[in-house]
Amino acid sequence: MLIKHLTQSFMAFYHNPFGRVLWLALYYFAILVGLILLYGEGQLSSPDFVYQGF
Amino acid sequence: MKQTPHIFAGALALFVALLGTFAFSIYATRFEQKYVHAVAGVDHESISGGNALERAALQQDDLLMIYGASELALLDTPLQANRFFSTYPTGFMVFSDATLGGSSLTIAQKFAALGEDLRGKRVVLALGPAIMTMAPEGEVNIRHYTGNFSTLNALEMAYSPHLSVDTQQLAAQRMLEFPETLQDQTFLTFALKKLASDKPLDRALFYLSWPLGKLQIAIAKVQDHYATFNFIRHNLSAEQVQIKREARDIDWETLVPIAEIEQIQNTDTNTFGIDNSQWHKIKELFVKPREHGSKDADFIYDVEHAREWEDLEITLRVIQELGADVVILSVPMNVPLWEYQGVSESAQNKYYEKLHAVVAPYGVPIIDLHEFGRTPYFSMDLASHTSRKGWIYVNQTLDAIFHGLLP
Questions:
Q1: Do A45 and B135 count as a contact with CB atoms less than 8 A apart?
Q2: Are the beta carbons of A46 and B45 separated by less than 8 Å?
Q3: CA geometry: angle at B242 spanning B236 and B248, to 5°?
Q4: Nearest CA distance, B212 vs chain A (angstrom)
Q5: Does the beta-carbon distance from A32 to B74 stay under 8 Å?
Q6: Cα separations (Å) of B271 from B11, B20, B263, B377?
Q7: Which of A15, A20, A37, A51 to mutate to test the interface with B (most CBs of B within 10 A)?
Q8: Chain A residues bordering chain B (beta-carbon distance below 8 Å)
Q9: ipTM computed for the complex
Q10: Burial code of B63-89, b = ≥16 C-beta within 10 A, e = fewer?
Q11: What SS3 state is found at A16?
Q12: A to B CB pairs, distance under 8 Å
């Protein structure tokens, strides 16, 4: 019953033009966050090496 | 919006993400400013590929920035400047960016990356004679250069709006001579190759790549803030965050013999005053003394033709074009040890002569500590790595530089 109610609410919201854009924006934002988490850390520490002197 | 919901939603998501990134950068910058004094007192080499902390340190009136190499980084002792001045006894502390294996080419990129933040700021550039006198062709060891390489700094050097094209071109040509650092760096390699070329088409392609270069730098800077933010959160204890400031007079003359005794205790494996930590690496050179002056010609040739001077000139050009208030501090030759190797003192003096000749056109002041060449236990080995006793003299010099008494 609850799931059906939630599904209906979601579909009603999704078919509203404003609601659809909001859902899509959240969807794209989640993708961006995922990409940042996956590839965003970068490499700013120097690679390990042994100082060899002269 | 009704006809193109995906485009509108995508743009909205991108805008929110950019806004979030911008807000984080501002927050992280303030966070770095708040904790930079605490970071100055701990080993922060693990984030030396970035420059967010250096920018924060340059904004502080009570931090003296030092750039350099192993001469000021090899010996782990409480007498090192960043530990010696940790309680701000004379009103300042050192923020050391001296790294093992550092060289002029690495430092040139660091300076270039700081750009306008460096203008008018007093910074110490510590040099030593080791690369010019001991390294093959007087050039930085490739592993050392690779170990200190920073993509962010390299990109900033290439796309700096504050440097002349001539300087950027010279730097790019040198950076391309270390292809190991450019593996998997397609865009940076492209940029450096185009920058290094004199062909008009290459120059045009380089300028066309400018927006992409700036975008890469912007992304790398956010990554740098994130790495720095994480470093501060996970590496500083509550005790380290509390900065103790205890003003006191330093009796340098009393400290010298105390440090000398400590240094002597650490040289008991040999009779040459070489630190025990270094003796096993060079003891073969001290089996038998070479004839006086027998190696002068080789030594002078090496000093005259060392490639490190080319890199120092690039650094000096960057310093001049950015208007930084840099003081060069050179550690001295270890005269008796080099004499044992067959190099006379007059030949050793060629290092100082060349140093002054290279630097003079740029008007950067030099403190060469020449007078300490025969001071026992100043350096702990042949490569002029500063000993415990040497650190007292170096600290005294840094104190005078900060307070405007030198040069």
A1: no
A2: yes
A3: 125
A4: 17
A5: no
A6: 72, 62, 13, 11
A7: A51
A8: 17, 20-29, 31-33, 36, 40-54
A9: 0.77
A10: bbbbbbbbbbbbbebebbbbbbbbebb
A11: coil
A12: 106
CB distance A46–B48 less than 8 Å? yes
Are B104 and B315 spatial neighbours (Cβ–Cβ below 8 Å)?
A: yes
Q: What is the pLDDT along chain B (407 residues), one digit of tens a residue?
A: 667 889 999 999 999 999 999 999 999 999 999 999 999 999 998 888 899 999 999 999 999 999 999 999 999 999 999 999 999 999 999 999 999 999 999 999 999 999 999 999 999 999 999 999 999 999 999 999 999 999 999 999 999 999 999 999 999 999 999 999 999 899 999 999 999 999 999 999 999 999 999 999 999 999 999 999 999 999 998 888 899 999 999 999 999 999 999 999 999 999 999 999 999 999 999 999 999 999 999 999 999 999 999 999 999 999 999 999 999 999 999 999 999 999 999 999 999 999 999 999 999 999 999 999 999 999 999 999 999 999 999 999 999 999 999 99
Q: For A30, name the nearest residue in chain B, comparing CA atoms only.
A: B13
CB contact under 8 A, A26 and B150: no
Q: Is A44–B144 a contact, with Cβ atoms under 8 angstroms apart? A: no
3-state secondary structure chain B: CCCCHHHHHHHHHHHHHHHHHHHHHHHHHHHHHHHHHHHHCCCCHHHCCCCHHHHHHHCCCCEEEEEECHHHCCCCCCCCHHHHCCCCCCCCEEEEEECCCCCHHHHHHHHHHHHHHHCCCEEEEEECCHHHHHCHHHCCCHHHHHHCCCHHHHHHHHCCCCCCHHHHHHHHHHHCCCHHHHCCCHHHHHHHHHHHCCCHHHHHHHHHCHHHHHHHHHHHHHHHHHHHHHHHHHHCCHHHHCCCCCCCCCCHHHHHHHHHHHHHHCCCCCCCCCCHHHHHHHHHHHCCCCCCCCCHHHHHHHHHHCCHHHHHHHHHHHHHHHCCEEEEEECCCCHHHHHHCCCCHHHHHHHHHHHHHHHHHHCCCEECCHHHCCCCCCECCCCCCECHHHHHHHHHHHHHHHCCCCC
